[in-house]
Write a structure and sequence with these properties.
Length: 257
């Protein structure tokens, strides 16, 4: 009985951590999704996928919290089994998203290169995407597609390529590095974070399956022991009632005439 109570407390503690993990997963996915959208003009749209899925899986964490509390506390087999089944599915899904993030990490620099090159050509010829380039150059401290020389065709260097002094708006330094490498590093870091999130969740879900499975096995053993104790008590009560009320002996037969 004591072992069952300990495992029940562990399951309830895990459920509380599961709720926290759901909130964190939703929060981190929103933050990382914002970082992708912030430079979405130069990052392939496929990079959004993992963060959207993590956002949805965060709500599954919150739903599992309800099952994780109700199942062990009320000893409901259906809720415990449903919890383990959904947790296994969640484990596989989060592991798959982690692998997907690694695949995207390996491809994002090439796809970003094509998007940046096309966008920069449009910028030079038609002044398209000027705000997007200005924001990226200021934040990543870079200039043009492959350096300040890329603006020679326009004969005008944008202010976003200048590192302005703190005291005034004069240009104290021109960023010489092009934006292709800084942006590729920026996108790769986001996808590495996505992969770490996925594999960390996998380990966490595996722990949950283990805890609830051991609790379920212990619960089955404890229920069997309860049945045996109940039967033993019923037999003891029956024996005590039988000894307290002995059967009266039958009278002797009458003597013959």
């Amino acid at each position: 009985m004591a072992s069952l109570k300990v495992k029940e407390l562990l399951c309830l503690l895990y459920s509380a951590l599961l709720f926290i993990s759901g909130v964190l997963l939703i929060g981190f996915s929103v933050v990382l999704l914002y970082k992708v959208i912030h430079h979405f003009k130069f990052i392939p749209s496929s990079a959004i996928g993992p963060f959207i899925i993590y956002f949805l899986l965060g709500f599954v964490h919150l739903f599992l919290t309800w099952l994780g509390v109700k199942g062990p506390s009320r000893e409901h087999d259906v809720h415990i089994i449903l919890f383990m089944v959904i947790t296994v599915i969640l484990l596989v899904a989060e592991c798959a998203v982690g692998v997907w993030s690694i695949i995207l990490w390996d491809e994002v620099d090439i796809e970003s290169l094509h998007l940046m090159q096309k966008s920069f050509n449009d910028l030079l010829n038609n002044d398209y995407d000027k705000k997007d380039w200005a924001r990226m150059e200021s934040e990543l401290k870079c200039c043009g597609f492959d350096g300040a020389k890329a603006y020679e065709k326009k004969n005008v260097l944008p202010l976003s390529c200048c590192n302005s002094g703190l005291q005034n708006s004069t240009c104290t330094e021109i960023y010489q590095m092009g934006c292709q490498k800084p942006l590729a590093s920026y996108a790769k870091i986001l996808l590495i974070d996505a992969a770490i999130m996925g594999f960390s969740c996998c380990v966490f879900q595996a722990l949950g399956v283990f805890l609830f499975y051991t609790f379920f096995r212990t619960l089955k053993v404890e229920r069997s022991a309860r049945v045996q104790r109940r039967l033993a008590m019923q037999r003891r009560v029956s024996q005590e009632n039988g000894s307290a009320n002995p059967t009266p002996s039958s009278p002797p037969p009458p003597a013959s005439a």
